[in-house]
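seq:
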Amino acid sequence: MRIAVLSRQSSLYSTSRLVEAGRDRGHDVRVVDYLRCYMDITSRKPAIIYQGEKLSFDAIIPRIGATYTFYGAAVVRQFEIMNVYTPATADAISRARDKLRSLQVLAQRGIGMPVTSFAHSTKDIDGLIDVVGGAPLVVKLLEGTQGVGVVLAETHKAAESVIAAFRQLDANILVQEFVEEAKGADIRVLVVGGKVVAAMERTAGIGEFRANLHRGAKASPRTLDAQETEIALAATKAMGLEVAGVDMLESAHGPVVIEVNASPGLEGIETSSGVDVAKSVIELIERKVAP
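struct:
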């Protein structure tokens, strides 16, 4: 099979592992910088051109960065028009990347998540804070990734100041309850083809509440219980993804989903769990694409 990994850099761990796993299974795998692609949008012969070459693949694996979601999703959509298989469609990528929209979808499906509020006017700050049960609470930028733009406000006054400051910059924010019982730890679950293939627990460093590996969190393998597995699968299905990283917290009222990632990193979870996640992604493509 001819497979393209849509990625800005071939040296990134996740990209190189997907290329390696595909080639190990006998496929022709190539890294394509999606920002260098341009599209011929016609009704009869739609095409994607890359460095002067019209691309032809059986499947693509999108690794779209948050900064370039709009253009990356447009490239993925063009491949879909050309009947190329993708485990993450353009609509699913856009849905998962939009924090507000994704939480609304999860809520519609009855999937547990932290109590969340959203507003436009700074005149409604007290109402925002009341909805989530008061301080301490978490303020999140809608466009933030890897823990950037996530602030813990420990008092009502601090919450007011942070929210007002973000809104003064015209930034869209979410306000969420602080799940104190999680104790600075979260669970990352990798779902591939409707199955949980790996899971890890990430524990934040001293003085930090964000359990992001990029911020010094420590990862360890995690065995999920039946409820955690069910929620991870349901969240992935709600987003319309075949491959996803689902982040959850352990709360007093059960597991709650904080994010569904359409381009989950593989390094932390492969290293901590010992599972060859990249191979699972390639095997999914083999099942989905007709010989």
